Amino acid sequence: MKMNLKTASFLGAAILTSCTLSAQSQSPAELNDLQIAHVAYIADNIDIQYAHLALALSENPTVREFAQTMVRDHNGVNAQALALLKKLDAQPQNNFLSESLQADAKGIINNLASLRGAEFDRAYAENELAYHQAVNGLIENTFIPNIDNAEVKALFIAGLEIFKAHEAAAKLMVSNVR
Questions:
Q1: Is there a contact between 98 and 35 (Cβ–Cβ < 8 Å)?
Q2: Which string of DSSP letters, residue by residue, matches 44-75?
Q3: Rounded to two decimals, what is the model's pTM?
Q4: CA neighbor of 134 nearest in space, from 30, 16, 37, 1
Q5: For residues 44 and 6, what is the distance between their CA atoms, to the nearest angstrom?
Q6: Which residue from 142, 136, 138, 130 is spatially nearest to 160, judged by alpha carbons?
Q7: pLDDT tens for the 178 residues of the chain, in order
Q8: Which of 18, 56, 142, 149 has its CA 20 to 30 A from that of 25?
């Protein structure tokens, strides 16, 4: 996959920052269920922000359809997560990883917002693919194996299936906007 250099560097910075912080303070594998829930909620909200930007800037039907799907699906997963937290009478907990994701997303959004036309469409598509690959890997390989609460784990397993479908759709979108 050929990735826009700016997008790749921002996404790489996000992942490297998270890994560097992990090595210095704690690992994503050490997060508790409520911290993991907060990371997932933040990651969903970030992707919703990316999608709203795409809806504002893109005229490409493929990009717009994908962005609409991101808004719908990520809002749906977040609603389920909030309902489960309410049922469990729990509050998500902010942590190093959720803070890092939020900070890094600002740079990515600024980069995407500076682009127009086909250049925006390519950068958005490439970012979505890389973002879903990174988040899906974190969910599948780190979060799900370390979640203690069965209901929280079940929500993450169901969410991962949706996000894997997003990854596949993002891969197709990348090939369609080249």
A1: yes
A2: HHHHHHHHHHHHHH---HHHHHHHHHHHHHHH
A3: 0.85
A4: 16
A5: 22
A6: 136
A7: 333 434 443 444 444 344 444 444 579 999 999 999 999 999 999 999 999 999 999 999 999 999 999 999 999 999 999 999 999 899 989 999 999 999 999 999 999 999 999 999 999 999 999 999 999 999 999 999 999 999 999 999 999 999 999 999 999 999 999 8
A8: 149
